[in-house]
Each structure stands twice: as C-alpha cells, then as structure tokens.
Amino acid sequence: MNAQELKQISDWLIDGARSAASPPQMVAEFCESLVGAGLPLWRVGLFVRTLHPDLLGINFIWRPGAEVVAGSADHSFADSPEFKNSPLAIVFGEAREVRYRLDDPETKRFPFFDDMRAEGVTDYIALPLLTTAGYTHASSWSTKHGNGFSDEQLNALRSLMPPLTRLVEITNLRRTAALLLDTYVGNRAGERILAGQIRRGHADTMEAAIWLSDLRGFTALSDRLPSETVVDILNQYFDCQVHSIRTHGGEVLKFMGDGLLAVFPVTQRDGSVQQVCSRALEAARESRASVDAMHYQVGEALEHFRFGVALHVGKVLYGNIGGGNRLDFTCIGPAVNLAARLEKIAGRLHRTIVASEGFAGICAGGWSDLGEFPIAGFSKAERVYGLADEVPAS
C-alpha cells in the first residue's frame, strides 16, 4: 500500500464514510478499498460493545465476494468458553493487539484458529479500537497469503485504527441513543426525541386506542414476598404483555409499579381506527392467555396471577411534560383518565378485559353490557363492556 492510497482511505473514514448508507456497507467498502490497495485480506471482523439491557455487542464479518454478515451476542457470551478461549478476550480484557502466525504452536490454545487453519489462513492480527470514553472495541484481520502480512501492511492497518475508531464510536453512540430511547421511552417517542422534540410543553394531539392494566393483589403480594422475588415476578408479568402490545402495533409508554400504560396510535401508517382497536383487543386476549399460564414457585407454593386491562379510544396529548430539567415523554388527557377509572371498575367486577362504550362500539362483536357506572371526575356515567366469553373471577 502506498502512502497516497492509505491517506485516501483514512480521509474517507475521517469524513464519515459518507458513501456507505449503513454499518455493514461501511465495513464492505472499507475492506474492499484495502484489498484494492493491495492488502491480501481473507476475513475481517469488527466487534462493537453496546450499552443495551439485552445485548453485549454486535459484530460484522466480511469475506471477499460475500455479503457482510451482521450478528449480535447477549451478555452471557462474555462468560462463555467460546469467548474466554479466543484472542478477542485478550483484546477486550487488556486493550492490546494480538498477533499470531497460524503455524505457531501457541495458537493451539485457541480453538478459533483450528477453523481458520482449515480455511487456509496463514496470519492473524486483532487490533483494539480505543474510544475517547475509555471503552475498547475490537477488529480482527486475517490473510491466506503464503507469507502472511508484511510489516508494512501491519503498520498500515495500525495507522487506520484511530480514524476507524472515531467513526465506530460516533456511529455506536448514535445507535446507542436510539436503542436506549426505544428501551426506556418507546420507539415512537424515541423517534420524536431524536428528531428534536425535546422542549417542555412540546406536545401533539393524536387519536389512539389506550391500554391501562395492572396486576391483581399486587400490594398483598409485595407485603409477603421478598423484594427480589417481587421484581422477578413483575418482569415475567410485564413480559406477558409487552411482546403482544408491540407485535400488534402498540407502544408501552410507562410502567407504574404493577401498572402499564400503552397506546396504539391511529395514524395513516397504522390503519383505520377499527383496525387499530381490533389489534389492541387481540393483544389483550393474548396477554390474558399469557398471564393465565404464568406461575411462580415460592417455596412449596405455586403462585398464580390475574390482571385487568381497560381499553378505550380517544384523543390524547402526547409529548414532553415535567419540571425543571427532568421531563417525561408521555400522554395525558381525559381519555387516559377514563381508561384509568375503567381499569378500577374491571377490578371491582372481577373482569380481566373491559372496554369503554366508544371502544366496544368501534371494535364490535363479542361484548356484554356490564352496566352504567359513575366515573370519578366525569360529569356523566360511563357504560362499560366486558368480553362475552369471559367468566368473572370469584
């Protein structure tokens, strides 16, 4: 590689790899430009740690003439023999490079190199990517060239690590921000925040199906079980709902103890109000089945659980609410208040799923009229509906 080619590649990285529309495309263009400059690459890996409750990191594997393969690893991978007995464990643990010719007997201690030798790999180097925040990502480079990598080629790779690291760091920070916002405030709210909707009082009115649920008997449960057990039960209980809500187009806005507030927005991309309400009802039916099947072993006793969910549809104010520099992206309005009152009525009636007259009228069929009830804070009584196929719990 001559100095001019190396500078062009470095400048491309420093400029943000603008010709690449995605991380896999960036990895592909980067590796292909190195091959074009004379670097005999066979396999390149980029390993990026993430700040995510479920994922330890993501990786991208490039080989000549093939699509870049993107993958991920959960947090348990850090304790697996596959990782602990790999050269990358040294890179991540000690933030230093690892270089081996594959005819070196020392490589026998790494099972990964057995596969590489079978492919005809002759030389391998793993280089750390040291971020400004003190984190370490990693890259690995291998060749099948008979003489392996030359010193000039290795120095060229080393010289490209700082600009590659800055690009990876910036891209990863942007991805981490999106993932954390999605995790903690929801996908749609996260999109709005990243788009700049961050000022207090900045809110929009939207029509939505509203979901408000809670776990029956949670106060008594909390009083008689250890707090760690209660947290584990809550996580399992919310798992019974969140997947169904998101699968059917809803967004979880808030967990309030054992309570859950979600909305199913009625927008052009989500379909008609009837379609949205039907999906919300289907999510409620799925969640009912999941909670019914949920059980938890506490000592010799087997705990079973019940929950209630109220469904309503109406206008909500959706945006930034809070005090000082502590904001919450949530929804408020009379429609949300009514859903909260209906959920309490569901508990009194020993029902799992109840709906307002507005929701039941839109999502017609399969409802029983449970009567008219006064609603605290509302001038008119509200007619409440329950599913006809549901037998009230004793």
From TrEMBL:
Biological-process GO terms, alphabetical: cAMP biosynthetic process; intracellular signal transduction
PROSITE patterns named among the record's database cross-references: GUANYLATE_CYCLASE_2
Annotated Pfam families: Guanylate_cyc
Guanylate cyclase domain residues: 209-343
SMART domains: CYCc
Gene Ontology terms, MF aspect: adenylate cyclase activity
Protein name (Swiss-Prot/TrEMBL): Adenylate cyclase
